[in-house]
Amino acid sequence: MSDDHRRVRVTREPQRHAFDRFAEAASQFVSRGVFFTISLVVVAIWMPTLFLFQSIDTWQLIINTLTSVLAFLLIALLQNSERRYDEALHQKIDALAAALADLMVHQAEGDREVLERHIEELRSSVGLERDL
To answer: Is 4 among the domain residues?
Structure first.
């Protein structure tokens, strides 16, 4: 086996796209206490506005629509952050598995055939989650 064949390459995306950067910033903002405080203040301000509407149904429809739209958008942004986190985690695991396989090759002592089988099993697991 050539030395180049033994090495596992872990690919990386060169840069994040604008939406990824926006989703990360939004995810960091909504996970802080400031966002919760703002949400709490909005609800506290919203409660007395019941008297501005002629019907309680209109009042409920407006708040329900706004919260549903906000929840939908936040879920989309948080899914983006979760996807990128999973990809980064898998890249790290792939890099660790590749490094361990290379270390096993260079530290080979004992039964070479068993060691080669373990190395191949380890290398075959790199990127396995993409096939599932």
So the answer is: no
